[in-house]
Every structure is written in C-alpha cells, then in structure tokens.
Amino acid sequence: MRFAILLLVILAAACVVASFITQGQSYAWYASAYSERKAALIVALGLDDAFHSWWFIALTAFLCGNLIFCNLIRLKPLLERTRAEGDIGAALAGPADVTAEAVADPLPVFNRLRLPQLQEREIESKKVLFAGKNRLGLWGPWVCHLGILLLILGFALGQMTHREWTVYGVKGDTKAVGDSGFFLTIDDFQVKLRPDDTVEQYVADVSLFRAPQGSTAVPDSQSATVSVNHPARLYGMKVYQNSTGYAARISVEEAGTPLQTAVVCAGEGIEIADAPGLVVYLNAFYPDFYLQPGVGPATLSGVMRNPAYLYSIYYQERMVGMNYWQPAEGPITVNDYAISFSEPQSYTLLQVKQDRFEELALAGGLIVMLGLLLAFYLQPVKVWAVADEAGGWTLYGRSRKGGALFKEAFSQAVDRDSKGEAK
Amino acid sequence: MIQVENVLFYGVLLLYFGAMILYFVFVAAKKEGVGKLAQGVQLLGLVLHTGAIVLRGIASGRLPMTNQYEFATAFAWGLCLVSLIFIRRFRFPLLGAFAAPVIFLIIGYAAMQSKEIHELMPALQSNWLGFHVSTAIIAYGAFGVSFVLGIIFLMRDRMKESGFLDQHIPSREKLDMLSYRSVSLGLLFLTLTILTGAIWAERAWGSYWSWDPKETWSLVTWLVYAIYLHLRIRKGWQGKAAAVFAVAGFVCVIFTYIGVNTLLPGVHSYK
Ligand code: HEM
Fold it and tell me: Do B216 and B198 form a contact (C-beta atoms < 8 A)?
C-alpha cells in the first residue's frame, strides 16, 4: 500500500501544478505569459495539457493496476475474514480490544451495544455468549476501490469514444449534425425574460432526423424541447442548449430592386452575388444600444428598445468599412448596392453529444459512495462473554476500526450495568 | 424580510463572537459553567442563523446558496452545526474554543461580501446545484472540525500538564478516532458533492468533468483525505502524520473555496 499512497500523493501534486498553469494554450502564449525557457519546459513536459499527457495517463493506469491487484489479492482473505467475523471459535482464539471481568449479567451490555442477536454455546464446558454485527462493513474499502476503478474506466472510455458536435442557427434552420449522419431542425427558439429583463431561460424546440437516403419519403424524426439544465436524449444522442447570440437578416438591393437576402448569425456575412469579393458581415447586435464613453458599445438589456447593428464590409479580404447602423439611418450604400439589416433575433447554439460510458462512470461514483458508507458506518463489532467459575461473566469486545470510541462505549455499557450491583 | 435577515445575520455574528470569547474564558479561567454557557450561546447563534438562512431562502424564492455571501454564511452554519454535534456527542467543550474562531472568521468573511439578491442565470437554476452546495456545506463543516481536531492533536503534546486540560482534551487515541469520524463524514459528503456537481455540470454544460480548476481542486482535496485514510491504517503513521494531513486537507478546502475563485480562472468563477 506504500506504493498506492505514493501514487495518490504524486497525482494530487500533479493536479496542483496543472491547476496553476492555464491549460491548452500555445507555446507562444506561454512564452509571453512566462518566459521562453519556462514555455519550452511546459510544452516539453506536457504541462500545457497535463490531464491528457502521457505521464498523467500512466499514473492513472498505475493507480488502476494497483487497485485491481489490491482487490484481487484481498478477495480471498476478505471472504475468510467475513466468515470468521461471525464465528465464535475465531473470536475466542483471537485477541480482544477490551475486557471486563466479573460482570453479573451480560445481557444488558449486549443490548446497550445494540447486539441483540445472541448465539449461545458450550465450549470446553464453559458457557459462551456471542454476538456480532456489521460484518458487511469489512467490504467497504473493497467496494470503494471497485467503484473508483469503474469510475476511471467509464471516464477514460468516454474520453476515448465520445463524439460531440455543435449546431447553431435560428428558428426554422435545418443543419447537418457534423459527420453524425443526422440533421437537426430548430423548430423554435425563445429567450424567456423575467419582468426585470434578466434572462430566465433559453428554450429550443428541436427535431433530429437521419439524413434521407435517396428516397423522397419524409424521414422519421424525434423531437424535444431543450433548455439550459434540461438536455434531451434523441436517437441515443444528448442535445444541450449550450449558448446563444444574435442573428439578423441582411438585405441587399440594387437600384430599388431586391437582390439578395439572408439571415446570418453575428460573426457571419454574405458575399454579394453580383460583386465577387465584396462581403458584408454582421459583427454584433445590440438590442438596447448605448455607447459607453471611453469603453465602447454595450447593451443595457436584452429588450429591443434601441436596436443597433455593428457591421463591416470587406473587399478582396481587406476591410473597407466598419460602423454601427440603426434602422432610422436608411440603407448603407456601397457602390451601387443598398444594404440594410432587419429581423434581429437570437440564435441558439446546441451541443449534440454521444457518450456511451457516462452511465458506467455514474455507476462507479455510486459504488464509491456505497463503499464509503460501508467502510465508515458499518464498522464490524463483536462481543462475547465467557462464564467464570464464580457465576459471573468475563466480557470481551473487539472492533478493529472502532478504536478508542468502541472501547469507551464498551466500558460505559459495562459500567452502567454494574451500577448498584456487586462486581 | 431581507431587513430581518440582515438584523439576524449581525445578531448571529455577535453571538458567535460571544461564544468564542466565552470559550476562551472557559479555558483561561478553567470554569466548567462558562463552557456550558458558551455552548448555549453557540446553540442560540445556530438557531438564529438557521432562521436567517430560511428567511433569505423565502425572500429569494430559492435555496440561498448561490453566491459568495450565501455560501460563506452557510459554510459557517455547517461548521457550527457539525462542531456542536461533536462537542455534545463526545462531551468535548474544549473543541469549541478552537472551532469558534474558525466559525467567526468564516462568518466575518461572509459579512464582507455583497448581500444583494440576484436572479439566477439559467445555468444556476437546477436542483442538482441545490444538492451540490448543500452537501458541500456538510462536507466543509466536517472537514473544519477535523482541521480543528488536527490542530488540537498537534498542540496536545506541547501543552503543559494540567489537570484541567487533561480532563478536557481526550487521549491521543480518542482524538485520532474523532478526527477519523469527522474526516469520514466529510469525505462521504465531499464525494456526494463531487458527484452531484458532475451531474449538474453534465446537464448545464454537457460535460460532467472538464478539469476546470475548481473541479481539479476538489479532486485534490478528495485525494488528500484519501491519503489521510490510508496513512491512518498504517502502523506508525497514525496520529501525527494523519493529523498533519487533516490540517492540510482543510487548507485545500479553503483554497478550493476562495483561492480558486480569486486566483485561478474557470467556469465556477462567476459565482
Ligand atoms: C483514489 C484512490 C483511493 C481511494 C479514494 C481509496 C479509499 C479508501 C478508503 C475509503 C478506505 C477505507 C479506509 C477506512 O475505512 O478507514 C481504503 C482502505 C484501503 N485502501 Fe484505498 N483508496 C484508494 C486507492 C487505493 C489503492 C490504489 C490501493 C492499492 C493498494 C488501496 C489500498 C487500500 C487498502 C489496503 C485499504 C485497507 C483496507 C482495510 O483496512 O480493510 N487504496 N481506501
């Protein structure tokens, strides 16, 4: 077990070190945050992604190996000890933690120690009483270690096999869920506000369906409502309402006739069809716009009181203009084109995930809990009484884990019993 | 209602301060009666404290444990509760003299936080978050007690022999058992805290464990107490070494609670 303790110490130390280093950055980032030399060290040791580094995985693997080994070699002794724990002969042959001599009546002592189920036997022509409890508690550490193994296994398998995609869009959009072979339709998306304009919930109605294969038949689909903290399971995948942002319609007119229009999310743009290389981007949207002096644009709330759009225009990948725009200003003119924004709305960013081993990890966690409960709150106790020649009894108690507290409880149970009676 | 809560809070602060002073007098003057009085004052403080937390819960319409103030005051409440249970159950009033300053420090920290009630952002509206923080409070309270017991254990050998202290400080063996009792209570609840937190994170963010610094530090705390348990069952390491780990464990608890929010970045930092 010395090795196990050492492993736990090293793992804890590794976690501490890693927690002080921002994870997942580039060499350049570390070089500017620390120094070139330190950055080189961080990257060489894998401290930039410590929890997925070979040495962290190796440590965890050693821990698992150790746990498997421990649990295997302890299985037989544990079975034997569990049997022995309830055996009178084994109790008599073994040591006791506490004894009390010349006890007139042992029964109240057993009762006070909550050991009502007595066994009675005659051994070497002496009467012996025996009671034990909480034998199952012996299994606590074993069960706990098993749980840790399952937890680590579930987590590791999940890390290796889980698949995850993000889909974003506005109400009415249908998009492919990455390479999963599924499509997702956003049937509705609402941002629910409280009377004080703070956000109460983001709610998306979504449908998932398999990519149609050649046929024109309407494919089967499964639908659900998802909101923050309330994911839904569709076709074995979980859909989460993960994030949100603003979207709006960009419209382009040429000489009074509509040329092009599309709804885009903030950060996206459209290339004007007639003018290759000319792209209009919606950078941001402010429903309740105000320009904070010295700081920049901000929104006072999520309510559409004073909508403003931040846009930029690129030509051949070079920015040619960037500004705020409010509907009252009239269209923005670029060459012969009149550009305007309308229909501001929220888009939703959904996460779609498949992790088949989540339940295994959860089961591991619950088994750890069970093991801890057994180890801490079912401490094996046994008490036996042997009749002496004077007509009294000698009482013995044993609780390996009860320590001083068991001895105290035992003495108290005996003392209270002998009060008023001759010892 | 919030005004009443506020008044109660400062009343509780005073009572905890009073209990601390009384415990000190109990030790200095070696008067049993004062020790009893200190426990009474601590109990009264706990009752009013419970009232204050319930009132805040009613006023905000949710479990009042979602910002730094609410969690700090609940933390003090948990430590007060668990320490009082240990004091009464194991007839150990001297424990109060060591626990009361820690309780007072934590509630003092709470007093310095903003007491405003904010509406919860959607990610924080979850029953799992409720289980997560309530189990954390019991875990932290129990670890606070084992910290205090560890300190008493380490100081015990340095104290001068005196009838009073001998009578009031349990044997090394019993102190070690009490510490084991509080650590095991704490670890059980810390495990529950981590599990419910993971379930909540999975529902709110789609990932049950993402090595965010707060998660990492709760794992460190968990490992430190696991090391404590394994040391205790090794011959020769019981007692002193275990007591050192019990103290170190609580330092991790405090760092997880305050240090991570202020020193390290992560998803928990908006709290
Ligand atoms: C994260 C890792 C671990 C945790 C959380 C853990 C937890 C525990 C707990 C709760 C106990 C019971 C202690 C008590 O009741 O006082 C225990 C006992 C024990 N553990 Fe672990 N353990 C871990 C790793 C290991 C490893 C890797 C080994 C490998 C050898 C190991 C070997 C033992 C042994 C031999 C006992 C004593 C059982 C007894 O006295 O009946 N543990 N452990």
Answer: no
Interface predicted TM-score (ipTM) of this complex, two decimals: 0.91
| pLDDT score for B265 | 54
Rounded CA separation A293/A300 (Å): 14
- Tell me whether A329 touches chain B (CB under 8 Å): no
For B156, residues 6+ apart whose C-beta sits below 8 A from its C-beta are B169, B172, B175
Closest chain A CA to residue B228: A5
- What does the mean pLDDT of chain A come to? 91
Residue A244 pairs with which residues in a beta bridge? A348
Q: Among B176, B188, B229, which is best to mutate for testing ligand 1, by the most ligand atoms less than 8 A from CB?
A: B229
Q: Up-side HSE of residue A334: CA atoms within 13 Å toward CB?
A: 23
Cβ distance B32 to B90 under 8 Å?
Answer: no
What are the φ and ψ backbone dihedral angles of B61, each rounded to 5 degrees? 70, 25
CB < 8 Å from B in window 136-155 of A: 155
Distance between CA atoms of residues A274 and A344, nearest Å:
25
Q: Of B110, B60, B57, B55, whose CA–CA distance to B80 is shortest?
A: B110
| Count of Cβ atoms closer than 10 Å to residue B231 Cβ | 21
Cβ-contact A234, A210 below 8 angstroms = no
What is the predicted pLDDT for the residue at A216? Answer: 63
Whether B149 contacts B247, CB under 8 Å: no
Helix, strand or coil, per DSSP, at residue A102: strand
Nearest chain A residue (CA) to B208: A358
Residue B259 to residue B247: CA distance in whole angstroms: 17
Query: Span A1-22, mean pLDDT?
Result: 92
* Partners of residue A228 in chain B, C-beta under 8 Å: 122-123, 125, 204
B174: Cβ below 6 Å to ligand 1? no
Count how many pairs of residues, chain A against chain B, have C-beta atoms within 8 Å.
116
User: How much is the pLDDT for A213?
Assistant: 66
As a whole number of angstroms, the distance between CA B190 and CA B225 comes to: 10
Task: Find the B238 Cα to ligand 1 centroid distance in Å.
Answer: 15
Residue B73 contacts by C-beta under 8 Å, 6 or more apart in sequence? Answer: B9, B49, B52, B53, B107, B110
Amino acid type, A302: G
Q: Which residues of B176-185 are buried (b: 16+ CB within 10 A; e: fewer)?
A: bbbbbbbbbb
Q: Are A108 and A342 in contact (CB under 8 A)?
A: no
The residue-averaged pLDDT of A24-41 equals 90
The burial class, CB within 10 Å (0-12 / 13-18 / 19+), for A406 is buried
pLDDT at B267: 47
Q: Is A144 in the pocket of ligand 1 (CB under 6 A)?
A: yes
- Say how many Å lie between the CA of residue A115 and the centre of ligand 1: 28
Residue of chain A with shortest Cα separation from B204: A229
Residue with tokens 């949100």: A244
For A342-391, how does the pLDDT look when each residue is reduced to its tens digit (9 = 90+)?
Answer: 999 999 999 999 999 999 999 999 999 999 999 999 999 999 999 988 88
Q: Are B206 and B178 in contact (CB under 8 A)?
A: no
Query: Tell me, what's the pLDDT at A422?
Result: 35
| Partners of residue A16 in chain B, C-beta under 8 Å | 220
> What beta strand segments (E) does A44-198 contain?
98-103, 119-123, 126-133, 163-169, 174-177, 182-193
**Are A417 and A112 a contacting pair, CB within 8 Å?**
yes
> What pLDDT score was predicted for residue A373?
97
What pTM value is reported for the model?
Answer: 0.90
Q: Three-state DSSP class for A121?
A: strand
Coil vs helix vs strand at A289? strand
Q: Is A22 on the interface with B (CB under 8 A)?
A: yes
d(CA A100, CA A111): 16
CA gap A132, A380 in Å, rounded: 7
